[in-house]
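Worked example 3 (structure in, sequence out).
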């Protein structure tokens, strides 16, 4: 059984996979939740496999393009990204959800002279 205890100066939270107890400043509240309510505590997080520039990589889902760019340390860099043969506009990075098996090509612009 997974049991998690989070404690701060003013409150405490316990979670064992079925029940969460929250104690703010002297009172206790018991709440019943499923594991999906606390996905970061789930023993089996969903994983997706992506092909990035021909290299297979695994990531925790859900994942959008903006989060992927951040995880690949491309934030702030000038990049072009193609998903399954189609260019993804930078303005849609935050709304483009990635799916298992997506084929991505990432090109990073390099300046020089």
């Amino acid at each position: 059984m997974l049991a998690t205890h989070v404690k701060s100066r003013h409150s405490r939270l316990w979670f064992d996979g079925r029940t969460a107890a929250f104690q703010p400043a002297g009172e206790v509240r018991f709440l019943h939740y499923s594991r999906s309510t606390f996905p970061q505590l789930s023993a089996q997080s969903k994983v997706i496999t992506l092909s990035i520039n021909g290299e297979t990589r695994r990531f925790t889902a859900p994942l959008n393009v903006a989060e992927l760019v951040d995880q690949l340390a491309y934030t702030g860099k000038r990049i072009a990204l193609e998903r399954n043969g189609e260019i993804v506009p930078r303005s849609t990075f935050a709304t483009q959800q990635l799916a298992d098996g997506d084929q991505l090509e990432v090109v990073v612009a390099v300046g020089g002279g």
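Notes: Residues 69 and 75 are 6 Å apart (CA to CA). The chain has two domains: 4-41, 47-108.
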